[in-house]
Every structure is written in C-alpha cells, then in structure tokens.
Write a structure and sequence with these properties.
Blueprint: H1 2-25, H2 44-74, H3 82-104, H4 109-126, H5 128-142, E1 151-156, E2 159-168, E3 172-177, E4 182-186, H6 187-192, E5 195-197, H7 198-201, E6 204-214, H8 219-236, E7 240-252, E8 255-265, H9 270-287, H10 311-315, H11 326-333, E9 337-341, E10 346-348, E11 356-362, E12 365-370, E13 376-382, E14 387-388, H12 390-395, E15 402-405, E16 409-415, H13 416-425, H14 428-443, H15 450-471
Antiparallel strand pairs: 1-2, 1-5, 2-3, 3-4, 6-8, 7-8, 9-16, 10-15, 11-14, 11-16, 12-13, 12-15
Helix pairs in contact: 1-2, 2-3, 8-9, 14-15
Length: about 475
C-alpha cells in the first residue's frame, strides 16, 4: 500500500510541476520554449523544464516496478525475475533521457543516432563481458532454466557434478556442491554448460540423509552395498525416480559418514521416503555384515568382531528360514558355506538337479528364462535376504531357471543334509515352510483373482508338504 501511495504522490507532483511550468512559460510542456546549449549555464526555468523529464522518468520507473510486483503477487509460477525488472528500468530511464536530450537541446534524431551509435559501439566493446552476463542472466531467468534452490547435474572436465543453486544475480550463478562448498560461475559461462535441472526435470525433488558406518569396513564396499540398496528402493517404490548418488561425506572418530542423495516426488512425505531408504539400507548393510555406528544401531560388543560374524544370522529373517528359531539358525550357521560370484557369473543352471539353495548376503542376482520364441526374459532381480533354489532344496526338483550374479555377490549355500537334522527335530517346520512357498507360487499366478489365489495357495501347500516329507524320507 505504501508503494502505491508513493506512485500517486509522484503523479500529483508531475501534475503540480506541469501547472507551475505552465504558469511561468505559458505551456505545461517546458521543453517547447527551452533551447539549451553547452556554451552557457541553463537558467532556472530551463532547469525546471529538465526536472520534468527527471520526475517523469522516475515516475514511469516506479509505475513499471509496481506493476511487476502486482503481477508476481498474482502468479504462483513463471514470476518475472529481478534482472528483467532492472533491465526494464534501464530502458525506461534511457528512453526518457534520450527524449529529454533531443527536445531540450533541439537535436536531430538522425544526428543523435549516429553519435550514440559510435558511443554505444565503444561502450559495448568495453563492457562486452558484463553485457553478455546480464543477457545470459535474463535468459536463465525468463526461460526458467534454473531457480534458487534447484539441484543441477553437469560435467566439469568430464567429471559429473551435482550442485544446488543458492544465489543468482546480474553476473553470477552461485552454486553449492555436495560438500557444502560454494563457488560462482559467470552467467554467460553457465549458460554454455550442458546441465540437467534435476528439480524441474520431472516434478521430483532431491533429498538426502547421512548414515554413519564403522571405520573397519572398506569404503568402496560400503558404497557398493548402499548403491545396491538404493537400486532396490528405486525399482520397488513408485515415489522414487531412478536417480541417486552415494558419497563418503565425513570421517569421524570411529565411523565414516556416508551421504545418500535420492530423487523422489515433491508430494512424497519426507518421513516416509526417509524411512524406506533407511529401512532397506539397514537390511542390505546387515546382510553384508556391515554394522552401523552406535548412534543408529545398538549392538553388543561381541557382534562387532569379524571373527564372530555369521552372515546367516543377519539374513535369515528375510526369507523362508525365518520360521526357524534363532538357536536352530546358530546351529545351521556352523556348517553352511559362503560363496562369492563376480558380475555375470552363472550361479544356477536351468534343468540341473540339485538339493541346495542360496541366500543372498550381499549383491544382486538376476533370474533368467526363455520364452517360447527362445528370447531371454528376466523373471526377477533378487536382493540381500532373498533366497533362490529353495524348491530344489526342499523337493529335489530340477532348477527352474538360470540365475546370474548382476553385481559382486556373496551367497550362503544351504544343503539338504544340513537342513535335514533341524526338520527331523521339528516336523511342524515343514508345514510352515510350505505355507511360505505356496504363497509365493500363488502370487505368480497373475491371471487369477484374489479368491483363486487363496485356493491355489492351499492346494500348493498340501502338495508341497507331501513332496518335502517324501524328499526328506518322512513319508
């Protein structure tokens, strides 16, 4: 309201000044009888006529700025940037000043254009860098290429960089990298960079969290596990995009802080997305035998020693072996074997008869089969805690698909001979395991409705119980 009142005051002053000039010179347009020269000082009435142009230019500038402010207050997106307002003010003042010079000094427009052209050429060459930066600033803001708070990704000397836009002015864009270091790039140079505005790219926003991990673990291995966890999250939850980055953020006493940046929908709840990332990061790290810092996960001292680490104890809650008691798992862990597979290496061959299964402790497996046309089809990606080959272990049936390691993968192998003593002591486990397997088989029947799935699950469960008991010599 104050700015609006100020504009009305300026309008009143223009009218009052015109009335005063009219009283003194007989016309409200003071420049008509005025003929200024550079050979003598102007008289009072000539100064009064020149003041009309100064006041007019100032009034038009305030009207322009107030109009932009009013327009921006009504819009939620596509606001007119400040650099455009400043450029508009310069144009208004320049035009009014040019008009005043022509009228007050009785100059020819052609003569003035010729003189101003030479002067403009000299100034343009001297200020070419500044002008280029200002023009680039106008382009960046009017085309809404970037805004303060946006995350961008660009290449610097071939190295991908992620940064946040924290400030923009007439000459510079100020960025902040993932380590919190701020640096400035001229607008013209920034406009020449090939960059992706991650924030505006698809309605997603960048979020981050920090996970401290014990210093005893190799950082490359921890980053690989965290990347695997984020790959799982991005594939499994629609509120996440496929973009994420994992970094070593800070080295502390007893722990290393790892930062995860991920992209999710702007309307996604912060706590919900953070929960999903932490939940699966915890699962993948624990499955790999990597412990958190004590501030995030309380552990007894003995569990931190590698000599006491048993991968099976960490991964069994996620698969079919969760029906076993902890003491049974502890007994089983004494005989199981740990295996390592490189990316692309085959783990299971379709059609082979076997009596073992694998639980993923770290990495990722790809389950592959072929359709009727002989084309390769990826049936599933399996992650830490998932198991594969359980049907062969429990029923002796041939392997139903090819399985390959997609990443560096650590597996725990469990054989029939190792599981048989546990099932012999607790026959009820057979039924509980059969229920879990039957549910998995039923969910694969995508063409059936819910009631049909329940029916299939019950039939499969009964069939599996008989097969398992027969295979283990109990029927």
């Amino acid at each position: 309201m104050k700015s609006k009142a100020f504009v009305w005051l300026l309008v009143v002053l223009n009218i009052a000044l015109a009335m005063w000039v009219n009283k003194e010179l007989g016309t409200p347009w003071g420049w008509i009888p005025t003929h200024l020269t550079l050979e003598q000082l102007p008289r009072f009435l000539e100064v009064l006529a020149g003041t009309q142009f100064v006041l007019l230019g100032f009034t038009l500038d305030r009207i322009f700025r107030n109009s932009v402010h009013f327009i921006n207050s009504k819009k939620k997106q596509g606001l007119i940037p400040a650099v455009v307002v400043d450029a508009g003010s310069i144009v208004i003042c320049s035009l009014v000043g040019l008009l005043g010079y022509i009228l007050l000094f009785d100059q020819s427009i052609n003569t003035l254009i010729a003189a101003s052209g030479a002067l403009g050429l000299a100034l343009g060459y001297a200020l070419r860098d500044m002008i280029a930066d200002v023009v680039a600033s106008v382009t960046l803001q009017t085309d809404h290429l970037i805004s303060i708070g946006d995350w961008i990704e660009y290449a610097e000397s071939g190295t991908p960089c992620i940064a946040k836009v924290i400030e923009m002015d007439r000459r510079y864009v100020t960025l902040e990298n993932i380590d919190g270091r701020a640096y400035r790039i001229t607008n013209n140079r920034f406009l020449a960079i090939t960059f992706v505005n991650i924030t505006q790219h698809s309605g997603f926003t960048i979020r981050e969290l920090i996970i401290p991990v014990d210093t005893q673990y190799n950082s490359d291995r921890v980053l690989e596990v965290l990347s695997s966890a984020m790959d799982y999250v991005c594939r499994g939850y629609p509120q996440f995009s496929a973009w994420f980055r994992c970094y070593v953020s800070q080295i502390q006493i007893g722990s290393v802080a790892y930062k995860i940046r991920y992209e999710c929908r702007e309307d996604g709840q912060v706590d919900e997305t953070k929960h999903l990332v932490l939940k699966h990061a915890l699962r993948f790290l624990r499955s790999s035998g990597i412990s958190f810092d004590s501030s995030m996960l309380v552990q007894n001292v003995e569990s931190l020693h590698a000599s006491n680490f048993s991968p099976l104890l960490d991964v069994y809650p996620f698969g079919i072996l969760r029906v076993l008691a902890e003491d049974e798992i502890s007994e089983l862990s004494k005989t199981v074997k740990s295996l390592h597979f490189n990316p692309g290496q085959q783990v299971i061959e379709q059609g082979v008869i076997a009596d073992s299964m694998y639980i993923i402790a770290e990495g990722c497996l790809e389950v592959i089969s072929h359709n009727n046309k002989g084309e390769k089809v990826v049936l599933a990606n399996l992650w830490p805690g998932d198991c594969v080959g359980e049907m062969s272990l429990l029923t002796g049936e041939p392997r139903s698909a090819h399985v390959y390691a997609r990443l560096n993968t650590h597996l725990i192998e469990i054989t029939k001979n190792e599981l048989a003593p546990i099932l012999a002591k607790n026959p009820l486990l057979v039924e509980r395991i059969s229920i879990l397997l039957a549910d998995r088989v039923a969910h694969k029947q995508k063409t059936l409705n819910q009631s049909a799935q329940e029916s299939v699950a019950e039939e499969v469960k009964v069939s599996l119980v008989l097969k398992i008991l027969k295979f283990f010599g109990k029927s």
